[in-house]
Design brief:
Blueprint: H1 3-18, H2 25-35, H3 43-53, H4 59-71, E1 76-79, E2 85-88, E3 96-99, E4 105-107, H5 122-132, E5 142-145, H6 149-153
Parallel strand pairs: 3-5
Antiparallel strand pairs: 1-2, 3-4
Bound molecules: zinc ion (ZN).
């Protein structure tokens, strides 16, 4: 077992324990798959990768494992209006690019993303909160478009 895998497992054990959840081989494998990709996989894609190592794993177990990872703060679930969801082991707020045809999600390159750090002026937030009662807690940036040849070759 390599050092990186050990670190992931240690981190997972602590995070699960912090939420009163059990460490399982399935959860460990799901977390490894997620932590080792920047492709924002769907639950089905995670399932296919986990199945290589754990052939008896079920899709339901993968869904439950992903939920556990989200609950203990080791993953974020990116949801879309069509009911689809993708998962990201990078839990820091960061901008994404989503392909409208395939649904694939990529991170905006980190050397570019700081300049995308858009914030709303305070008076707009106050207006929104006063008018709607909605408490603004964050802002998610997502660029919608189509993957070009450069992005596709990076896959
Ligand atoms: Zn991401």
């Amino acid at each position: 077992m390599n050092k990186r895998r050990n670190e992931h497992r240690k981190q997972l054990r602590q995070a699960l324990a912090g939420k009163g959840q059990r460490f399982t081989r399935q959860r460990a494998r799901v977390y490894e798959v997620l932590a080792n990709t920047d492709q924002h996989p769907t639950a089905e894609e995670v399932y296919r990768r986990v199945k290589f190592a754990l052939p008896a794993v079920s899709l339901a177990t993968v869904y439950k494992s992903l939920d556990a990872l989200v609950q203990c703060g080791l993953a974020q679930k990116l949801t879309y209006g069509d009911g689809s969801a993708r998962y990201d082991a990078n839990v820091l707020e960061h901008p994404h690019m989503r392909d409208l045809l395939t649904g694939k999600v990529l991170d905006v390159p980190t050397e570019i993303s700081p300049s995308l750090a858009i914030t709303l002026p305070e008076h707009i937030i106050v207006s929104i909160e006063q008018r709607t009662g909605f408490k603004v807690k964050g802002l998610r940036i997502e660029l919608l478009g189509h993957l070009g040849p450069i992005a596709q070759s990076a896959q």
